[in-house]
Write a structure and sequence with these properties.
1 helix
C-alpha cells in the first residue's frame, strides 16, 4: 500500500516537472518570436 502511494506521488512529481519544462519551452519560444519582431521593427526604422 505504501509502495503504491509512493509510486503515485513520484509519478505526479515527474508529471509536474514535465509540465514545467513544457511551459519553459513555450516561454522561450514566445521570447524568441518577440525578439525577432523587435529586430524587424528596428531594421524598418533604420531604413
Amino acid at each position: 500500500m505504501k509502495r503504491l502511494r509512493y509510486n503515485r506521488n513520484f509519478r505526479n512529481i515527474i508529471n509536474l516537472f514535465k509540465h514545467r519544462l513544457d511551459l519553459k519551452r513555450q516561454l522561450n519560444r514566445i521570447i524568441y518570436v518577440l525578439a525577432i519582431l523587435i529586430l524587424l521593427l528596428l531594421l524598418k526604422r533604420l531604413n
